[in-house]
Design goal:
The complex is a heterodimer of chains A (about 250) and B (about 400). In chain A, about 40% of the residues lie in helices and about 25% in strands. By secondary structure, chain A is α/β, with parallel strands linked by helices. The model of chain A has no long low-confidence stretch (mean pLDDT about 90). Chain B has a two-stranded antiparallel ribbon. Chain B has a two-stranded antiparallel sheet with strand order 2-3. Chain B has a two-stranded antiparallel sheet with strand order 4-5. Bound molecules: adenosine-5'-triphosphate and magnesium ion.
């Protein structure tokens, strides 16, 4: 039994079958990549895992519990954090504040009317957020407005925000899309370090094969809404069906 | 002090000083001088400054922090006014029960209206709140205010007021027959003459001033709290909030209810000034006014709403009183033809035309000072303090807390 079990999931958008009979099992503590050509349904699948979309049929179990019908914030509180295809951060807030918010969410839950205590008195939260910023190598940017940072830094911050919640499953949707080579390599190193030092499972959607083959322990290839093959990176590289459906196209 | 950092303590002290010394500050011109009509230090207007300041402070907690623009806050103001007058009718003219009930009833109303309106955001939220406020207005004006029915909650067109036949079960013989605080009538004043200056200290004003200071203090605490940070996060990115395990709805609802209670408090205080509550307080123009106040002063800043409220109330009460006679007095020194030309132009901007001046001013502020008058004040302050532009730029960029 994997930490995440997707069974017979179907999702239609009008006449378009975005997902058809998707089965996927992600083993705990693994790094699992999901690849496939544009429009294959990768983001749609991710949306079904985090409560943004509800599948038409099928089941999604996280750690033995169904996530279907739960709101995104509830699913997050169960232990699934998500990094978006374009970084989603609190642009109007400072980097430090961005990092404190998930720490509050972790400590106080989905809602807490903490209206008459001062933020400066929240020593445990401040410490935690600072620690995380140090880990992310961003402590010198703590007072910057998040919106004014580079895309690479925003992505880094977003990953840091997700990690500060100590999720059991981290979902990444094309974390290196649109990044310069150096930033991409930094992100790979960061993810490697996360995987080695934390009690975490990572599922990553990625087009960049360099990233995929540097990180993934298992790969699922999605094409036209259904999984084509699932195997180790070595096997995937040489798989004729994959070459035909995906690698051939992207080369 | 009181859980505030140094900067906020200073701000709090400035507000307290302004509120307590208002009878002096607002009356800079001697009686009988040509400028005396610009004096604003009379009780009625000072009370309005304080009361609308409270309304705008509360509105800013919702609009300034979460970005949810309510067009229905006048409903809570009206509900607060009616509640206070009902306490006068049933219990006594003592203002305390009235003020307390106005906050509670407005709070209950805002739970219901907020619960429904907050299912939508953006323009749809604004329209829903507007619809609710207009519904409340119509209920108050006609449905619930028919004097011949035995369920006459608002007394319709005439307005709700206290009659000799009302029970007033707690009224004591010694207490005055007007709103009072444990025997001290709200309208009682002490006048101080210094040379040709006349300063008026009014009991009702000082009650409003003290409540304004408390309201401001609570708002500072909310701004600096984790809850306040969550509200700013709602404004910034709801998607990220949801995927960070935070439920946005209770946060926005709490902000909505808090600001509704502030509005109810303001409404209750209006009734202590004059124990007559009418439905017109709930009209959409009244809702729009508090939006203007907050934006004019600076939404999302601590001081902005108070400044904006003072500004608009000053215009409404002072500029509207300047008539042709006054203008002739001012421009009498000009040659005749020129005088009438100048007066013809200026006339359109004063008296009943004060809305025009206010409108132009609002346009200028929104265009050139998106942060409102407070931002303008800060620029001016830095210029006077002689700091270079660059320095100031670097500073605003790294600011970690919202400006006061
Ligand atoms: N909300 C939606 N409504 C209608 N159609 C949608 C919606 N979301 C996705 N689709 C369609 O479903 C298909 C799968 O989209 P999806 O975004 O999952 O692809 P993807 O594999 O993530 O692609 P990419 O690599 O470009 O991100 C596409 O054809 C897309 O147009
Ligand atoms: Mg996608």
């Amino acid at each position: 039994m994997g930490i995440l079990e997707v069974k017979n999931v179907n999702k239609r958008f009008g006449g378009l079958k975005a997902l058809s009979d998707v089965n996927l099992s992600i083993a705990e503590h693994s790094v699992h990549a999901i690849i496939g050509p544009n429009g294959a349904g990768k983001s749609t699948l991710l949306n079904c895992l985090v409560g943004k979309l509800i599948p038409d049929t099928g089941s999604v179990m996280f750690d033995g519990q169904s996530v279907l019908g739960r709101a995104p914030y509830e699913i997050n509180q169960m232990g699934i954090s998500r990094v978006f295809q374009t970084p989603e951060i609190f642009g109007d807030l400072t980097v430090m504040e961005n990092m404190m918010i998930p720490c509050f969410a972790k400590r106080d839950g989905a809602f807490e009317l903490n209206a008459l205590t001062s933020i400066v008195k929240q020593k445990d939260i401040i410490e935690r957020a600072e620690h995380m910023l140090e880990d992310m190598n961003m402590i010198d940017k703590r007072n910057m407005h998040a919106a004014s940072m580079s895309r690479g830094d925003k992505r880094r911050l977003e990953i840091g925000m997700c990690l500060s919640q100590e999720p059991r499953l981290l979902l990444l949707d094309e974390p290196t899309a649109g990044m310069a080579r150096a930033d991409t390599n930094n992100t790979i190193d960061l993810l490697k370090q996360i995987k080695d030092t934390r009690d975490i499972t990572i599922a990553i959607i990625e087009h960049d094969m360099h990233v995929v083959f540097s990180l993934a322990e298992r790969i699922t290839v999605l094409a036209q809404g259904s999984p084509l093959v699932e195997d180790t990176p070595e096997k995937i590289k040489g798989h004729p069906k994959v070459r035909e459906a995906y690698l051939g196209e992207s080369a | 002090m009181l859980g505030l950092d140094k900067k906020d303590t200073t701000l709090m002290l400035v507000v307290a000083a302004l509120a307590l010394l208002a009878p002096f500050i607002l009356n800079p011109f001697p009686e009988g001088s040509a400028m005396a009509q610009f004096n604003a230090g009379y009780p009625d207007l000072m009370q309005r400054f304080a009361i609308y300041g409270i309304l705008a402070i509360g509105f800013n907690i919702l609009f300034g922090l979460t970005g949810y623009l309510s067009f229905g806050h006048a409903a809570f103001l009206g509900v607060g006014s009616y509640s206070a007058v009902w306490m006068f009718k049933l219990l006594s003219y003592n203002v305390i029960p009235g003020i307390i009930l106005s906050v509670i009833v407005a709070g209950l109303f805002s739970v219901v209206i907020g619960f429904i309106s907050l299912r939508r955001s953006g323009i749809y939220f604004s329209i829903l709140t507007l619809a609710f406020a207009q519904m409340s207005y119509n209920l108050a004006y006609s449905v619930l205010g028919n004097p011949s029915s035995n369920f006459n909650l608002t007394n319709g067109e005439t307005g709700l007021q206290v009659y000799a036949s009302d029970p007033q079960i707690l009224a004591s013989a010694s207490a005055p027959e007007v709103p009072h605080l444990f025997g001290v009538a709200m309208r009682s004043s002490y006048q101080l003459e210094v040379g040709s200056w006349l300063f008026t200290f009014n009991a009702g004003y000082y009650l409003c001033a003290v409540i304004l200071m408390l309201s401001f203090y609570v708002s500072v605490r909310i701004f600096r709290s984790p809850f306040g940070m969550m509200l700013r996060a709602v404004k910034s990115n709801q998607q990220r909030m949801n995927y960070t395990g935070l439920h946005t709805r209770p946060y926005t609802l709490a902000a909505f209810v808090i600001s509704g209670m502030y509005a109810g408090l303001a409404g209750g205080l209006l009734s202590t000034m004059d124990p007559l509550a009418g439905a017109e307080r709930m009209q959409w123009t009244a809702s729009g006014e508090v939006v203007l106040m907050t934006i004019l002063g600076g939404a999302g800043t601590l001081l902005g709403p108070v400044v904006g409220a003072g500004f608009i109330k000053y215009f409404e009460n002072i500029f509207s009183k300047i008539n042709e006679g006054v203008l002739h007095q001012w421009f009498g020194f000009l040659p005749d033809g020129m005088e009438s030309a100048v007066i013809w132009v200026v006339e359109h901007f004063v008296g009943p035309g004060w809305h025009l001046t206010l409108g132009l001013l609002f346009m200028l502020v929104v265009t050139f000072l998106p942060g409102g008058l407070v931002q303008g004040g800060q620029h001016l302050w830095r210029l006077l303090a002689g700091k270079s532009r660059k320095e100031e730029h670097a500073k605003t960029e790294t600011q970690s807390t919202p400006a006061e």
